[in-house]
Amino acid sequence: MSTFQLPPLSLYIHIPWCIQKCPYCDFNSRALKGSLNEEAYVDALLADLESELFQVYDRPLHSIFIGGGTPSLFSGSAIADLLEGVRQRITVPADTEITLEANPGTLEAGRFEHYRAAGVNRLSIGVQSFDAGCLQRLGRIHGPDEAIAAFHSARAAGFERINLDLMFGLPGQNMAQARLDLERAMELKPEHISYYQLTLEPGTPFYHSPPTLPMEDHLWEMQQQGQSLLSDQGYNQYEVSAYAQQGEQCRHNINYWTFGDYLGIGAGAHGKYSDPNGMITRHWKLPEPATYLAAAGTNDALSGQKILASDEITLEFMMNALRLHQGFSKSLYEQRTGLPFTAITTSIENSIHDGLLKNHHGRLVPTSLGKCFLNDLLEKFL
Question: What domains appear along the chain, each with residue ranges and CATH number?
Answer without folding.
Answer: 9-255 (3.20.20.70), 327-382 (no CATH)
